[in-house]
Specification:
The chain is α+β, with helices and mostly antiparallel strands. 55% of the residues lie in helices and 10% in strands. It contains 16 helices and 5 strands. It has a 5-stranded antiparallel sheet with strand order 1-2-3-5-4, with helices on both faces. β4 and β5 form a beta hairpin. α5 crosses α8 (170-193). It starts with 11 loop residues before the first helix and ends with a strand.
Length: 379
């Protein structure tokens, strides 16, 4: 799964604008011959340059990450001692490109805004469809599960009473109710869709998401199934939102360029919770931005799963998987400067340098999984 970073256009007028020049102290003395600074060391300087021109902190973060991507892509071609001035020019180009894009959007806004109110479906029709879907979903439960669920939810019987009536324990009844609710949510969504799952794997996967059962999700390889089944990918979103929530895991579907931005932001938020320093936040977001962009460009769709770690120390693991064409030769793809005829593999070494641990598993025509881990520095 290739990682490609895009270059920006050079605004000549901006380059020669004396008022936009950086203070002399920002460009340090050239490095010693043969020394190539870590790209991450340039982040504070890049952030100062961009922050002097852009006031929105979120936009600053985005531009810093975009600059880092471009510098990483060019690091192997830049002469020793010139990476720092290259980063300065690249940061200025990123800001100029953003200004041009904003100006173009303002000038064309009137062409894309539709002021007509959207047509609202008849509320009574929607309510009737939802009632019918609930009725169908209830009928798909076993008689025992349906009676227990209705007794608890409709008639208000508590778990102790239900346990005494059924010769069971309150804990067992509570577990049965949780399973019944999870099954009811799945069957309700299927009834609304008016369809049956296309494969035998669909219901187990949807039930694992509905119940928030991560162990079961791993057993049925739910993440891989979502990449292969469009119906389950669509239904899994409301199920994950309604199912049991886990504060230490974030799932982000990736299908288009806006999803790349969402992935970058949500991973950055997760990393902030772990307590990473600002420089590491940018590094992590940049690596995730690359793998997410790669999913969109070469696989069409996939997902990114972010897991907060505590053992052996605080950290963050990112798993990016897709069901795309795969990488024919992973070892070659991890060598600096490698790219196939289609650009596959370019950027993987850069992403690996940004993270502490990095692994790629790929099978041609069956997709790629990239696993990256970053550990929080102590002190």
């Amino acid at each position: 799964m290739p990682l490609i970073s895009t270059g920006g256009t050079c605004d000549v007028a901006y380059l020669f604008d004396v008022s936009a020049a950086e203070p002399a102290h920002e460009l340090r003395e050239p490095a010693e011959p043969g020394h190539r600074p870590d790209v991450a060391e340039l982040l504070p300087m890049v952030r100062r340059i961009i922050r002097a021109r852009v006031s929105n902190p979120t936009v600053v973060d985005d531009l810093v990450q975009e600059t880092l991507l471009r510098v990483l892509a060019a690091a192997g071609r830049v002469e020793p001692g010139m990476l720092e001035p290259y980063a300065i020019v690249t940061a200025r180009h990123a800001v100029a490109s953003m200004w041009r894009e904003q100006d173009r959007e303002r000038r064309n806004q009137h062409r894309v805004v539709d002021l007509r109110p959207p047509e609202e479906p008849g509320e009574d029709v929607v309510v009737q469809e939802e009632r019918e879907a609930v009725a169908q979903a209830l009928q798909r439960l076993s008689e025992r599960d349906r009676e227990t669920l209705l007794a608890h939810e409709v008639h208000g019987e508590d778990t102790r009473t239900l346990a005494a009536e059924r010769g069971s324990s309150a804990g067992a009844v509570a577990a049965q109710l949780n399973r019944s609710r999870a099954r009811l949510r799945v069957e309700y969504l299927l009834a609304l869709e008016g369809t049956e799952p296309p494969t035998d794997r669909c219901r187990p996967v949807l039930l694992a998401f509905s119940g928030g059962d991560r162990r079961r999700q791993r057993e049925v390889d739910a993440g891989r199934h979502l990449l292969e089944c469009e119906l389950c990918a669509r239904l899994s979103q409301p199920l994950m939102e309604r199912g049991q929530q886990h504060d230490d895991e974030v799932r982000i579907p990736v299908r288009s360029d806006p999803d790349v931005v969402v992935a970058r932001q949500r991973v950055r938020e997760a990393a902030e919770r772990v307590g990473f320093a600002r420089t590491d936040l940018t590094v992590i977001a940049t690596a995730v931005s690359e793998v997410a962009r790669n999913i969109v460009r070469f696989a069409g769709s996939g997902e990114i799963v972010v897991e907060l770690l505590e053992d052996p120390r605080p950290g963050l693991r990112v798993v990016a998987r897709d069901a795309g064409p795969g990488i024919p030769d992973v070892d070659r793809a991890l060598v600096d400067g490698y790219s196939s005829a289609h650009g596959l593999g370019l950027g993987l070494p850069g992403a690996r340098r940004l993270m502490d641990e990095f692994a790629v598993v790929s099978e041609p025509e069956h997709g790629t999984t990239v696993t990256m881990t970053k550990w929080r520095k102590e002190g």
